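Students often ask why we bother encoding 3D structure as a string. The short answer is that it lets us treat folding as translation between two languages. Here is a chain of 88 residues written in the first language.
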Amino acid sequence: MGRLGGRKNRHYVETDEVTIAPPSTPEDVKNLLAQAMADVRARKLDPRIASTLTYMSGAFLKAFETTEMEQRLTRLEKELQQKKEEKP
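And here it is in the second language, the structure alphabet:
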């Protein structure tokens, strides 16, 4: 019985389920986190869910950064190879 004490003090507004498009850019992640922050403050979103979103957003941004870096490196390697082939 002692473990349920905090649950009775939580007050979140029941809202309809919202389907959002998965973020595909860092800008999308920024907007998602900003909305989550606003929803937590308005008590529309459980802070634990917002915390999970924050954690996943960090992983997404790291993956995005790594992918972008790999693409840039590949492009630079191709340009370097083309310059080598142009020289007699």
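Translate back mentally: The chain has a mean pLDDT of 86. Keep this in mind for the problem set.
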